Amino acid sequence: MIARLLEGVPRRGLVLLGLLLAALVVFPFFASGYLLTVGFLVLYFAYVGQSWNIMMGFAGQLSLGHSLYVGLGAYAAAALYVHFGVSPWIGLSASIAFSGLAGAVIGFLAFRFGVAGVYFAILTIAFAEFARIGFDHFAWVQGSSGFFLPVANYATNDLWNLRGSPTMFYYLMLAMSAAAFVLCHALVRSRMGYYWQAIRESPEAAEALGINVFRYKMAAVVISAAMTSLAGVVFAFYYNNLFPEQIFHISRSIELILGPIIGGIGTLVGPLVGALLLTGLAEGMREIMLQLKVDVPGVKQVFYGLCLLLVVMFLPHGVWPPLARRLGLERGGADGAARADEGKP
Amino acid sequence: MALGLSVIFGVVRVVNFAHGEMMTVAMYLALMLFTALKLDPLVSLVPIAAVLFVFGYLLQAGLISPFINRPEHSQFMLLVAVALILVNLQLIAFGPDAKGIRTSYSFDSFKLGPLVVDAAKVYAAGAALVVAAALFAFFRFTLTGKAIRACADNYHGALVVGLNVRRLYALTFGLGAACVGAAGAMLMAVIDVTPAIGPAYTLLAFVIVITGGLGSMPGALLGGLLIGLTEALGGVLFTPSAKSMFAFALLVLVLLFRPQGILGRKAA
Amino acid sequence: MDRRQFNKAAAAAGLATTLSPAIVRAQARRLKVGVLLPRSGVQAGIGQDCHRALEVGSRILADLGLPGLDIMNGDTESNVDVGRARAERLISEGAQLLVGAFDSGQTTAIAQVAEQRGVPLVINIAAAPPITEQGYKFVFRNFPTAPMILGDAFANQLEVFKATGVSPKTAVFMHVNDTFGVAMQKGFSGVMQKFPAIPYKVVDTIAYDPAARDLSVEVTKARASGAEALVMVSRLNDAILITRELVKQRWAPSAILSMGPGWYEDQYLKTLGKLGDGPISFVPWYDPNKKLAKALEAAHVKAHPEINLNTNHIYTFEALLVAADAFKRAGSADPKALADAIRATNITDNVSTGPGIQFDAKGQNDKLRNSAIQNRGGKLVVVAPASASNAKPELPVRAYDKR
């Protein structure tokens, strides 16, 4: 199994990955509380980016409503915990079920009725907005007045109930990101992964080759939705409060897909690189503003926007593919999908 | 507003995620013209449309045109970045507080039997119809308008017959932006502006345009009407705070059963 | 001076106060206070309004002979993630106390950081009850919760009805469907039962979307209920929209009673001119007769002549007051000692209505009282409670076409 996973991955890539992982593991021993929070955010966005990437990067379905799955996952686990005292580890099965179901419904409707491209993207927004307004009126989880989780003491780390220090959440997120990375790596190189790429490049050709396009697109949506919902569970227990206006908001959907687009769509390392760059950029920007004694709200966001603009203009495939070439990894399996991307117009 | 999006998408096929933000730019322009020169927004909509036309033209020619053949997510990113810059520039320039203008007719209303009709909205709707008619005439009767429609119908065909597609695209984007400008000025007569209202309008415009049919101008008008009616009915019959849910529900239904929109042509 | 220059000047003034200790009388030791506010993003308006109280407030604290505060600014960008990261950053930069953050969601996120790092947080504004129900040791709130606001609102309404002789028999309740609006709506009927003397019966309750761009349907529905009075929980933009609809639909309720923001704000008064007169707001306010309130108002008017002193300024200032006062008594910036000092706070010379600032075991100031303020001639007057007022209420609201 492991041997199969490692097959075709260049040694250099493995060494780099190992070093990265080691660095991330020892990071909390050196980091201040602030850096730890930033580290958590990086991993969080890397994870949701990775989940989104399954749908967009591998199967070519543009979703702009992924906040729906984050929100459903968060609310499902949080509501079970608050109302029935169910551990989030059990609650997450409900999260997966709800989000997977939502993904299946959206996918089924969209793919059955032939909604594709931009229209599909708008459909996903519509469902997320629908959920946002719906949860505003959902009294069981306190509607728009916000759903609060009880905060107990912080002295001990209770992994079973996900109550504990930021360090615990950091490692949890690290484990999830690593698992998502390995899972995506396995998926891309599975039969399904190749089908997905065929569908992404040309659905018609894939259909002609006898691939059950509908089935594999559905699989992509459901897997992506289920994975995203886990991030929602962590979000709920990390922040301990949920507001439909926040969690289902379209700006959160956009936030979570910026990482993989900047990093490199369809690559495995892209979402991680993107999350690292964007969070780093945002924080760095604030530091620079602070050093320059510029205290005008909004300036930071303008420069952030300019940086995004420059990246999309000059690095159409994201940061990772050219970076991978620099590092001499371009033939590797880790970014196998990136090569497929090169052929695109 | 929705018309602008319809024009842009119908021809250029770029999903403009900076639409609402462009509209707030127009609203601030209307505000400045009103405070400096006492220009009524229904008058200032002409120069504002012109300014927005130039803005749209340059945006397309300078930034978007290299992206025409790039995948959707790339265009999407580009316009999200543009939107982010616009919103925050407005925040820096105008501050976060809501600003409005008061015209002589701001608080007038007509009484038609039991119905009370808001004067500012009637004037704005009238102006919107004039703009729509002008746009319609332009596309139907002028040579440039016909050429633009040709581009929309068949990109490669247009290239083959020697049309300057790049210029036409920029022109179209400019036109779309001009519509947005006019819409922004009109809206200024009805509501107040803050930098943060843009995104909500982008979404609303999408809902309207898709319901009516992307690329169809009468469709955009019809879509606007339908969405307005659905929201109003939903508000009266159920709780008003959930009324936009009905708009989204309508959108989903339209997407599923008539993805080209109510008045859109098949396989555009 | 336009807003841009004004902002620059304000920023410069703020910088000057933080940088040059000469202004703030020679204090041996100073407290580093991290102030977290949503100064960009959707809540930018309120965040920047709160921010205005900082430089005005620092000067007044110095006049009171309290130790100086080094203000460190953090912009939460109206986002929970950013709010949390900023709180961590301010603490790692040496902030010894946090103040913030207007929004309940962001405040909850920041409260957790404060609790984990053992740095006291003094909440300026945030009305969601659960924040002080979590058993936190380092979190203090000098702002009323939704049920407190409601209780005082009914008590003050009784006073107003008695003083004016206007007592509406029916009312329609309109509220915005957001965090604050729903918290108020949930408490509404329960709290109202404790006030059997309230003359009106609620004939209809109408919730509307916070992002609504048009409220004509809602107002039509309210008008159709035939109610005499209009009871509101709203924000700013919707308050303006609703007033416009009232004018256009030619409906002047005998009383417009607002239990939240919007109806007294500068933007409301400025946008609507004389059409903005009449509504009474039941809100956390200041006692115009208190000595410190007068001082704050004078300093505020001097710095921002075009802006009325309001809830945002008052409670942001009082958060700083609590911080400086506790620092003086604790005699050290040790967070534990600071938290203990804050818990023992007993400030009677303050700004807000009520006996003063004290915190209960949960860290909540449960002594706070609200006021009733009325818009009159583009200005705000305090009409109840009688002990903290500077004018008599006037009802009914004059018809909009007779102004």
CATH architecture classification of the largest domain in chain C: 3-Layer(aba) Sandwich
Report the helical percentage of chain A. over 70%
Mean pLDDT of chain C: 87
Categorize the overall geometry of chain C.
globular
End-to-end separation of chain C:
31 Å
Describe this structure in words.
The complex is a heterotrimer of chains A (345), B (268) and C (403). Chain A has helices spanning 2-6, 11-30, 33-58, 67-84, 88-112, 117-136, 166-188, 191-201, 203-208, 213-239, 244-247, 250-263, 270-291, 299-314, 320-326, 336-342, and strands spanning 147-148, 241-242. With 345 residues, chain A is mostly helical. Chain B has one domain. Chain B has helices at 2-12, 19-37, 41-64, 72-94, 119-141, 143-153, 155-160, 165-188, 198-212, 217-237, 243-257; strands at 109-112, 115-118. In chain B, strands 1-2 form a two-stranded antiparallel ribbon. In chain B, strand 1 and strand 2 (115-118) form a beta hairpin. In chain C, strands 7-6-8-9-10-11-12 form a seven-stranded mixed beta sheet, sandwiched between helices. Chain C folds into two domains: 3-144 and 287-343, 3-Layer(aba) Sandwich (Rossmann fold); 147-283 and 371-402, Response regulator (Rossmann fold). Chain C is 42% helix and 16% strand. Chains in contact: A-B, A-C, B-C. The interface between A and B is large, with 46 and 44 residues.
Briefly characterize the structure.
The complex is a heterotrimer of chains A (345), B (268) and C (403). Chain A is mainly α and 345 residues long. Chain A contains 16 helices and two strands.
Explain the layout of strands and helices.
The complex is a heterotrimer of chains A (345), B (268) and C (403).
Chain A: H1 2-6, H2 11-30, H3 33-58, H4 67-84, H5 88-112, H6 117-136, E1 147-148, H7 166-188, H8 191-201, H9 203-208, H10 213-239, E2 241-242, H11 244-247, H12 250-263, H13 270-291, H14 299-314, H15 320-326, H16 336-342
Antiparallel strand pairs in A: 1-2
Helix pairs in contact in A: 2-7, 3-7, 3-10, 3-12, 3-13, 4-5, 4-10, 5-10, 7-10, 8-10, 12-13, 13-14
Chain B: H1 2-12, H2 19-37, H3 41-64, H4 72-94, E1 109-112, E2 115-118, H5 119-141, H6 143-153, H7 155-160, H8 165-188, H9 198-212, H10 217-237, H11 243-257
Antiparallel strand pairs in B: 1-2
Chain C: H1 3-19, E1 31-37, H2 44-63, E2 69-75, H3 80-92, E3 97-100, H4 104-117, E4 121-123, E5 139-141, H5 146-164, E6 170-176, H6 179-193, E7 201-208, H7 216-224, E8 229-233, H8 236-248, E9 255-258, H9 266-272, E10 280-283, H10 291-303, H11 311-330, H12 335-343, E11 371-376, E12 379-384
Parallel strand pairs in C: 1-2, 1-3, 3-4, 4-5, 6-7, 6-8, 8-9, 9-10
Antiparallel strand pairs in C: 10-11, 11-12
Helix pairs in contact in C: 1-2, 2-10, 2-11, 3-4, 5-6, 8-9, 11-12
